[in-house]
Each structure stands twice: as structure tokens, then as C-alpha cells.
Amino acid sequence: MAIFLTKDSKVIVQGMTGATGMKHTKLxxxxxxxxxxxxxxxxxxTTVDFDGTEVPVFGTxxxxxEKTGADVSVLxxxxxxxxxxxxxxxxxxxxxxxxxxEGIAVxxxxxxxxxxxxxxxxxxxxxxNCPGLITPGQSNAGIIPGDITKPGRIGLVSKSGTLTxxxxxxxxxxxxxxxxxxxxxxxxGTTHIDAxxxxxxxxxxxxxxxxxxxxxxxxxxxxxxxxxNVTKPVVGYVAxxxxxxxxxxxxxxAIVSGSSGTAQAKKEALEAAGVKVGKTPTxxxxxxxxxxxxQA
Length: 296
Known about the structure:
The protein has 296 residues and is of the alpha/beta class. 35% of the residues lie in helices and 23% in strands.
């Protein structure tokens, strides 16, 4: 089983013919992703050869969906054009849009998030500024390295790309049902809560690892959701225990003011919901392993 992405997902890449799009399309194909097309109005009607796999280029998302039955789009579109690309994907009605692009203006992200909502949330947005998602052994939509883990029993949702990779590597012997990098910007499409609900409903996910970071109140809200709705064990990690107050750290969303948004406040909220919280990624992985061993 998996959440949001399976071996049957038909994936298109908006921005496939750019340098980053080309590089990661090749890697995604290598991971077994069923990539059925790219989108670039200026190169419509051409094909791109990826080591013997010919991928057609379409002029629009709508045309790509009509010709291929695509149900996922991965976006490697520069920040200035990303809003228009996401809106195009929403207008075409694609069920899942994975926005990898970093540096999209917050008002652009807010605009396309609100636009998706106004269209009835038919398009799930993951990101922006995220590594995407992977269902190991089935499909990979984004930039998560496909060879650091295997299929397994853990579901992972993370604000941080780098910590996504580290946690997958730390628990590679157990493996993952799916791993979702939701991105660290102030406005994102899919939240911790969305992923927690999906993992709770997935019969093959036995434990959930949730990685948060300082700033905002997403983790506190997730803690409330876990308390009320999640029956599976959840292990957490919050990045930024050493961050000075009032400082913006790395991700645009990671700004702390007063006690709100601190790692300690998030840790306490999660622990109050029954989540075991590690002080380091390695300790978090150890907690996950201990819980699964105890269940075996």
C-alpha cells in the first residue's frame, strides 16, 4: 500500500526539458516511476530520449492528461513562472501536483492554494519548496533519492528535505510505505495532518514518523489531530532546538517569536498527545525501531 502515489500513477513533468527537470526525470525513471510525458509549450510535439526511453513533450497539462491519462504532475518550473504552472495544473484537474520549486513568493503560493480550494480541492498540492514523495519500489515523484531505503512498514511526513533523507537512511532496514516531504514554506498545500490522516487509513503503515521544525504552529495542530484521530504509534522529531529566538532559520516558515513556534513548545505538545519525540534524528529512529520491535 501507499499514500498519494502508487506504481499505477501516471506522471508528467512540468519543466521537464530544463536542466533540473531533465536530471530528475532521468532519476525518477530509474526508480521505476511511470513518466508518461513532459510539458513545455515551446517544445510541444517533440520527444526526449532518456537512455532509450522516449518521453513525449506536450504543450499543456490538459493535453498531456488527455493523451496519456496522467494523474500526477511534478513541477520543476522557475519561481517566477511557478504560479502560472500550478494554476494550469489545477485548471486541467490533475489529482496531484508536486511543486518542487524553491523560492516561490509566498503570495504566489497563497494564491494557487486558494485557487485549488476554490476549485473544490480536486488537485492535491504537495509543496512548494519540497523534495516530493516516494513510495519505495513503486514510484518516486520529486528529488528524494530512490536507493536509500526499501518498501516497508513506516510512514514518514517531514517539513525538511534533508531530514527526510536522513530518516529514510536511518530506518532503511525496516523500510517505508511512503515518505512525503511537505516543504517548509509558510504556505504549503499538503500538511502534516493530511499525511497523518492518510497513513492512519493505510493498512500497511504500522508506525508514523513526523518531522517538524521551529516556526509556526503546524506541529501543535498536528498534535491535537493525533490525540483525537490517530491510533497508530507516532514518533516525532523537531529541528531547531538550538535556534535563537526571533531568528529566521533556513526555511522561510521557520521563524520563532516568543514561546510560540519553539522546538520545546512543539516537543511538549507532541508528547502530551502520546508522541515519543527524539532529541536527534538518530534517537528518533531508535525510538521508532524500539516500538516496532515491541509490536513484533
